[in-house]
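This part of the workshop introduces the protein records we will be handling. Each record describes a single protein and holds just a pair of labelled lines. Instead of coordinates, the fold is spelled out as a row of discrete tokens. To make this concrete, we reproduce a full record directly below:
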Amino acid sequence: MNATRIGLDIAKQVFQVHGVDELGKVVLRKTLKRDQVTTFFANVPVCLIGLEAGGGSHYWARELTRLGHEVKLMAQPFQGDFMSKMALFFNHRINIFCYEHRI
């Protein structure tokens, strides 16, 4: 796996990982539990990781930066009543992040 850009959707217990290579080809789609995240990223080659800015994202940004990764925080979309819509919107934004940002 040679992911150069990874989008990480964080939640309370289950995290979604989406990675693409330098050509934009999907090379990684994985679901991780909270206690697996640090171990997983310790074994991934250094890359650019995108996170949605929020409560836990700063903690994870620090942890991933300690492992040598470059972390970019993306601003949250406006808060609304339809959380499922926001989750779908964020998954779309992770994909955009992975395809648009080039190292």
